[in-house]
Amino acid sequence: MRKRISLLFISLIVLTGLLSACQPKGETDAAANNVSKDNPLANKRIALIMQLNLGTFSAQYIAGVKEQAAKFGGHVTVFTSDGDLAKMSSNLDAAINQKFDGILIDHGTSEALQSGVKKAVDHKIPVVVFDADIAEKNVTVLEQGDQKMAEMSLDQLANDIGGKGNIVKIWVAGFAPMERRQVAYQDFLQKHPDIKEIAAFGAATENTALDTQSQMEAILKQYPHKGDIKAVWAAWDEFAKGAARAIKQAGRTEIKVYGIDLSDEDLQLIQDKTSPWVASAAVDPKDIGRIQVRYLYQRLHGDQPSEKVVLNPVFVKRDQLPEKSVTTDQLSQYVDGWGASEQGYTDYLKELENGM
Length: 356
Known about the structure:
single chain, alpha/beta, Rossmann fold, 11 helices, globular
């Protein structure tokens, strides 16, 4: 009996060892990324607090965050808030209480987040924010150069319609980047008195693209004749997707769409010669995530980087793109300045990636 128990015990040990050896490594495993576990920057737990996780832009942004954190030996937990600012505030509080090493914030408002961000800083947890109007000492805030992106897309629109005609604006208030884009839009209308806004709408919902499509369909019925509408300016790629689909289905492809932001799905629509969406100003969403993580790790290292960082946008037009389908990972071959940004890197962060 004793011999049988001993054999069973040995078998269990062997089986446990085999199972452990077969367990898949997590994508942010420090050892898998050659980062020494003895390094003080290794194995950091990072919380990503998001207002919305919607569409391929958000998916690619998250991928950029996770990719860069993994290279630094970090572990990312994503807290999504489904557009609910109260839930976002609660998620931020939970991240603080769970003692994450660093916190990334994606969108949100100062009213919902300011006190939580201050609490994090008071608890010595570094915070880096993307596209939220947060003003707190020792917190870095990233923005995309929103006014520049709006100017790029609007200047192309004005050029293509000859500086005159009726346009539709799709935009929504209550988001810091949207408010900055609106400033450029107001300047644009003053600069081009022969361009008239005949309709404006927009809402951030769980089905933004689909809801935008329905609203655009209604506007097309109000203005049924060719020439009634020359162009649509969409201040967000989810808006541009919905508008482009409505226009194409209505057979009104003389109306062109000019957008902001760019993901793989968006790029496919712009490459489609039957699509009304012809151009977009953007920063690579993966690069946004990567850069945000780099600034967080600067603060984890004890540095004091700038409290405001403006990312460099580029303008992507259909006539720049090849006949074959491309992804945003390949876009740098055709559009100067796209992707592979070095913003936020330091020498020690590059060494950390290489397993210093």
